[in-house]
Backbone:
């Protein structure tokens, strides 16, 4: 970043700044004319100076051009104007004044809009420049820079800088020319009044900025304190598990409270100083009118200043304080913004950044990382000055399978990070062939080298999004198809942003040997299956959803598979394993709410207890005559739950088993039961009680509250509920249809079109096996696995298990087929047997390419061609031939997904 804010602004926006400044200068003659018109209205029309010699008319809009004396003093007549009477002159001058007011307002409108657009463009450019530098942070800087502070800087702290950019050059020119025009006009009317106005303005521009210096210092302290507060809150959020485990809530609250008090104290001191300065500025602004009224009035009484001139001078000065005040505010804002900009440039200092991409990047893009890997005089020290690597050197011909044996030391992990370009904190040199590894452009490294550490980094999105992350290369250029797209590209070029759209084709299919998206999905699923995650992808697919309109053929095949499953259950004596969704029967395995809706809620309004408060649903239940029965059932549930939970601590397992009432609600329902014994229930209390049986499942909760008669009533009410919701045009529920796919339900429910019985032992495993068989026979496995790739991983992959995160991370590295794959603890989430199998798969997937893996000891190092050991800070390499696979040992094949449970 430029060290000077004004230089940065001028470099990137001088053309726009000059255009707006030219418009500002063009507006000043109109502004001067608007200041002079009040004098003409008072003197010429109201006091009648234009009719002093007794004439009945006077010229209006007469235009003459008078040259100054030093140019000869000639006069040029341009337009005779219109002859009007006294009233006509008054109305004409007044309308002309209104016209100039509109013209000046239009100038201000255009200038302000232009400033705003210019500021937003520059703010967009600045934020993009800062984000670009975030991508260039060195590995060492990333260990010290807090992500929350950096995000706060880009999002919030540059906001006032962007707001100032449009004012940087335009505002002082616009306001300055306005103030000078007003002062010039006052001097033209009376020299002494003009000198008094200049004197007060001089005091304002000298004293006020001086008093505001303290505000800058306090503002800088507050900005730093706010940034530190954001960083600390981010730290607590990242380590919230440790806060809970060690019960550090009180300490953290006290620490944040201390920081908030410091912010409060700084803000109070800023307010005190700010309003003292404001008081003084307002006093000086009102001092000049005092002189105008007193001294100007004296001149008017003496006859040296006419009334029209005095009115015009006072009117002109009324226009003077606003621009002067805004100029002083602009100067304050300039200093304040410069401080903020300086802090931004310090945060993104050059020492923290990697060098920008070089011109060789494209030329070296396709050069593989093969040849002799040679390290010379590597030195790395720890925080205490001890040598981890001391003049270490080695040579390894690539490609090779290399085991880096740690034996409990830190040297192996450090060497892995050096080889993966994840650290620059070393001296010495590493070369591959004739190229210095740490001078190869980052784009080449990103394509040719991959690194997987002990802590996988996943981004929010789907599994597919994370797997193809390394395949998102530069999209091919294309012409703008629409007017909106052309506008987007134009704005991108004006602000230094990328012209490529995220809707472009970013994925490099050729890199993985895929022809299209479907073929890429097959490759991804196969890769995950070979890494042992095929079963999870299959289960994720069963839990996923499809949109029938987007894939009608798949929807039809799912409905056909539903029929095939029903036939399978009937033929194999498995009829009792699944209770089907039948429009004319009550489903014992689902809740009362699901039976009444006979569908899947799509909005929160129809989920959980919210359903009991929906007026359309309650009307339908009332019309079906079920309201009293369900409220009575709610009373029975409340009585039973209060008896069961009495004396139990919050969090007890019974609360989860009987998920009707939470521990915090017991007191409330006990009060409802007591009131029911004495008087009728209120509407709100009936709604609360109605919400309890909606979650009731007889085979699960076994409270004996459902009989056959009530079940028939519920099935009858199902039709009324559907009619009422459809009549109310409520699109919050998608109803079940035996002949269609329910897009709101998971694929598992659409296949079974029912629920697994709670009563039959081992029902889930038997149903899962039947589903798996039908899925394979009908060729649906590939489609289900493709749907499984749409499974969301959550923030930092928290919706996946550690093993699943590790598999996704490895697959992301392997799918781009790097020349060098470096693994440092990437298999730590697995047990030894699973790690050994995955290592065999890794050897096959990296055939003909290099694999570097950090191992704890020699026990797993058998298949590796090169062993790297550390001895007294030196590196010892043992190059050997990899053992051949026994002929009777088949290659590992995990391509078939693991059949897991369906529910």
Residues:
């Amino acid at each position: 970043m430029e060290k000077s804010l004004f230089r940065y602004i001028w470099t990137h926006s001088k053309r726009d700044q000059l255009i707006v400044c030219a418009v500002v200068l063009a507006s000043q003659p109109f502004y001067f004319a608007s200041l002079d018109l009040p004098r003409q209205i008072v003197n010429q029309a109201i006091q009648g100076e234009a009719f002093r010699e007794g004439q009945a008319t006077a010229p209006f809009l007469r235009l003459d051009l008078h040259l100054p004396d030093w140019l000869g003093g000639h006069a040029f007549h341009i337009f005779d104007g219109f002859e009007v009477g006294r009233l006509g002159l008054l109305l004409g001058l007044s309308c002309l004044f209104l016209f100039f007011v509109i013209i000046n307002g239009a100038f201000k409108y255009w200038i302000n809009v232009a400033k705003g657009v210019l500021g937003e463009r520059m703010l967009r450019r600045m934020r993009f420049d800062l984000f670009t530098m975030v991508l260039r942070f060195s590995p060492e800087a990333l260990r010290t820079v807090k992500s929350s502070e950096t995000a706060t800087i880009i999002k919030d702290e540059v906001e006032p800088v962007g707001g100032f950019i449009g004012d940087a050059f335009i505002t002082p020119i616009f306001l300055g020319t306005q103030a000078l025009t007003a002062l010039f006009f006052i001097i033209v009317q009376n020299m002494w009044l003009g000198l008094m106005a200049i004197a007060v303005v001089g005091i304002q521009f000298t004293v006020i900025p001086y008093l505001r210096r303290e505000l800058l210092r306090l503002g800088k302290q507050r900005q730093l304190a706010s940034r530190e507060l954001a960083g600390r809150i981010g730290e607590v959020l990242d380590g919230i598990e440790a806060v809970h485990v060690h019960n550090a809530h009180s300490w953290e609250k006290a620490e944040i409270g201390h920081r908030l008090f410091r912010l409060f104290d700084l803000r109070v001191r800023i307010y005190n100083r700010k309003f003292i300065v404001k008081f003084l500025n307002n006093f000086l602004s009102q001092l000049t009118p005092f002189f105008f009224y007193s001294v100007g009035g004296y001149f008017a009484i003496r006859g040296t200043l006419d009334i029209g001139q005095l009115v015009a001078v006072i009117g002109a000065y009324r226009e003077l304080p606003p621009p002067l005040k805004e100029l002083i505010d602009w100067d304050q804002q300039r200093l304040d913004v410069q401080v903020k900009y300086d802090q931004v440039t310090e945060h993104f200092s050059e020492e923290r950044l990697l060098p920008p991409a070089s011109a060789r990047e494209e030329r070296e893009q396709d050069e593989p990382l093969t040849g002799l890997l040679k390290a010379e005089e590597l030195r790395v020290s720890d925080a205490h000055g001890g040598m981890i690597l001391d003049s270490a050197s080695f040579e390894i011909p690539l490609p090779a399978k290399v085991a880096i044996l740690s034996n409990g030391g830190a040297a192996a992990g450090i060497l892995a990070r050096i080889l993966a370009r994840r650290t620059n904190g070393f001296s010495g040199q590493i070369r591959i062939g004739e190229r210095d590894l740490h001078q190869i452009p980052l784009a080449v490294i990103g394509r040719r080298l991959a690194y997987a550490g002990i802590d996988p980094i996943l981004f929010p999105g789907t599994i597919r999004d994370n797997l193809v992350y390394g395949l998102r290369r530069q999209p091919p250029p294309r012409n703008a198809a629409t007017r909106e797209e052309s506008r987007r590209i134009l704005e991108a070029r004006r602000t230094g942003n990328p012209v490529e759209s995220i809707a472009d084709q970013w994925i490099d299919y050729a890199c993985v040997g895929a022809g299209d998206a479907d073929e890429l999905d097959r490759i991804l699923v196969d890769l995950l299956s070979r890494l042992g995650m095929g079963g999870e992808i299959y289960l994720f697919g069963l839990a996923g959803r499809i949109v029938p309109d987007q894939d009608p053929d798949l929807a039809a095949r799912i409905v056909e598979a539903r029929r095939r499953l029903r036939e399978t259950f009937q033929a194999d004596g498995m009829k009792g394993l699944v209770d089907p969704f039948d429009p004319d029967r009550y489903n014992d395995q689902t809740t009362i709410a699901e039976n009444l809706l006979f569908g899947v809620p799509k909005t929160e309004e129809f989920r959980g207890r919210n359903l009991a408060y929906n007026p359309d649903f309650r009307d339908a239940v009332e019309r079906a005559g079920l309201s009293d029965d369900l409220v009575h059932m709610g009373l029975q549930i409340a009585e039973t739950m209060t008896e069961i939970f009495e004396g139990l601590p919050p969090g007890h397992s019974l609360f989860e088993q009987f998920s009707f009432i939470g521990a915090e609600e017991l007191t409330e329902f006990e009060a409802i039961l007591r009131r029911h014994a004495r008087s009728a229930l209120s509407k709100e209390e009936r709604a609360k009680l109605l919400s309890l049986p909606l979650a009731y499942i007889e085979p699960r909760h076994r409270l004996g509250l459902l009989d056959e008669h009530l079940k028939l009533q519920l099935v009858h009410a199902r039709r009324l509920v559907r009619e009422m919701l459809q009549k109310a045009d409520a699109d919050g529920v998608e109803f079940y249809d035996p002949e269609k796919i329910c897009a709101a339900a998971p694929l598992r429910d659409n296949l079974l079109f029912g629920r697994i019985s709670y009563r039959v032992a081992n029902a889930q495993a038997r149903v899962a096996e039947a589903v798996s068989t039908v899925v394979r026979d009908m060729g649906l496995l590939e489609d289900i696995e493709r749907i499984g790739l749409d499974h969301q991983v959550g923030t930092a992959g928290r919706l996946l298990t550690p093993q699943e995160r590790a598999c996704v991370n490895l697959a992301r590295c392997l799918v781009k087929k790097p020349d060098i794959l470096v693994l440092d603890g990437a298999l730590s989430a697995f047990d030894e047997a699973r790690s050994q199998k995955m290592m065999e798969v890794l050897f096959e997937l990296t055939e003909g390419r290099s694999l570097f893996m950090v191992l704890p000891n020699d026990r797993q190092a058998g298949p590796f061609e090169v062993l790297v050991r550390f001895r007294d800070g030196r590196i010892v390499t043992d190059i050997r031939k990899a053992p051949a696979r026994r002929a009777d040992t088949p290659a590992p094949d995990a391509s078939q997904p693991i059949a897991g449970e369906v529910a």
Remarks:
- The CA atoms of residues 780 and 792 lie 21 Å apart.
- The chain has a mean pLDDT of 81.
- Residues 5-68+78-351 form a domain with the ABC transporter transmembrane region fold fold (CATH 1.20.1560.10).
- DSSP finds 33 helices and 18 strands in the chain.
